[in-house]
Specification:
Layout: H1 3-32, H2 38-52, H3 68-71, H4 77-88, H5 97-110, H6 117-130, H7 135-139, H8 143-164, H9 169-199, H10 205-214, H11 218-224, H12 231-240, H13 248-262, H14 268-288, H15 295-318
Amino acid sequence: MLSRSAQGLYWLGRYLERTGHLCRVLRLQTEALVDRPLREVHFGWSRIYSSVNRQPPVGRLELHGNDDHDLGDEFTLADSYTLADDLTFERTNPASVWSCLALGRENARQVRHCISAEMWTALNLSYLRIQKLAIQDIWAASPESFYAETAAEIDTFAGVAAATMYRDDGWRFMQLGRCIERAQLVVALLLAQLASDSLAEEHSDADWTSLLRAYHAFEVYSRRYSVEVQPGQVLDLLATDPLLSGSLCRSIDMAAEELTAIGPGPNDRSSGATQRLASRLGALIHYDWPDREDHEGLLREVDEHCRELHRLVTVTYFDYPIEDFPQH
């Protein structure tokens, strides 16, 4: 297929995966505002901003004092209002919910000949619903409901795509984008959690439980282990379970499968490197993870490889030199 169409579908998958992920973590965060201690609220915002590599609009997120009583109004709902606005509706933030959904829709508009009419309708309706909304429109009632509804619409789009899209290379490029994006998002959130844990005197069960809920893994964890949340077990589950839809392992395995199905690209010089790197990523999780104690270091290595895999996909299939295109 045309490289510009493949690239549009790839980025469509990435942007919508990013939108759904951010909505899930923001839903959990806004739910915590109701009855959770201020320290947990502060940690949640810090973890989200660290995972998206963005500086908060209110400056550095810092708390002072030894308990919630000491904190007073250091961190109030007004701060959460500003932070939620920045991550949800801020047009100048390319990683906000609004921006990611708008960019995903724009890519879908450019490749409408490659997607089904039902896919376009589902995505366009979601975009039109939030196009003119602002933070004050969702904050007074139930912000968590807005995030839940938006995440559900992204899931609906994925279901409609699975039911209606033709299974050619266009489908595979969209799935490839989703898988690489999901892998990077999982790594970023796990690294943010580990970094915060290393600074705290003890871990919080609520923080690790929220990670399980963000990836629809709490019930699986409870069945496999127990209701007692152990950070090491949560980390193992989210990183290595091949049956968990949002796990790092499954995302990497699916990316490798899609690359194999797509086959070599016009840029022969990078095609082999792309396949080898995808295999190396799988080996890190399947074989290196159980034998390494430095899981944080391994996750950073996975993150670097994912970024390199994205670069190789780009030069192999999208931005290759014209002389690399096969002559017939």
